[in-house]
Amino acid sequence: MDSRTEPLLGATTQVPHLIPAWLEPWVGRSYVLAGCLFVLGSVLFFPELEEYYLGGCYFFFAGGAIYLCTSAYDLLEVWHTSDGEFDRAMNLLYVVGSVIYLVGTWLYMPGVPHIGGRMPTELGAWCFVVGSFFFVFACFVNGAHTGDVFAEASSR
Amino acid sequence: MKRCMSLYLLRSLVPSRLARENHKAAAALRQMKINVLLCSSCTMIGSACFLVGSVLYLPTIGCTEHTVRCGTWLFVVGSCLFVWAGVLPIVNTRLRAANEAAPPFETVVHGTVRLKRARPTFQALGRAVHAANRFNSSLKSPFKSPLPLNFPEKNDSAGDSPPAE
After folding, report:
1. Which residues of A touch B55 (CB under 8 A)?
2. Three-class SS of residue B125?
3. Which of A55, A60, A76, B72 is 20 to 30 A from residue A152's alpha carbon, by CA?
């Protein structure tokens, strides 16, 4: 397994092996792209732009799909290169959250039938609530782990 | 006398360069901490915005046009924070790349023993300082290195071994 030393943190980081190293920065950039798609999708959800509502759904779906792909890649990479439970748990939470978001977006699409006597939009909103909970929890895990890393770097 | 003066100046140069390197690394680490903290905060607040925005979309709490508008605004703010959270690690990566210049110290591994020693350029400077000390021991600089310098002598075989990266 290839590894390199982080010059400032003094920690050993792994060189990506699932994809070529030159492609790794694009994983980070795809997070930005997904965020931009979320912004566009959210704007089209305003009541004033109701005629573009479907476009908003598609933008949201595309953004969620990119989040899912990048989170899944991060999870696989971490699974291969790290034994840290924190890293695995964090990425797993992001992946599950992204899947729930994707399902929620699909439920907002027109033409989805009622499920269990409930409106699909209601179920979609619940999916967003649960998915957001996963994201918040993942942030907590990430924050705790990052705090540990920096505390170790400062104590050296 | 001229040589003594130049070596004296050289000796005072060693700690100042080390201190500058240390200061640069500390500043970069501080900047990285700020970036990571900002990134985590953006993701956290963005997720919280999504959470509240989603709740405002729930028909069971009496979803009206006003709550939908508020929810959508929260989604827009949350998405913008996600974008910002995606941009900050890219800045962080550039920051790391800028600090990949060789530090003044290197770690040499001999079996299971890890030793820290100055890099060859600093070793050369250190040897010059030692030579100056031997040449005239009365020349005592008031400057002391803030870091433990381990300069091997020129005829020391351990010091001439290639640096292990």
Report:
1. 125, 129
2. helix
3. A76
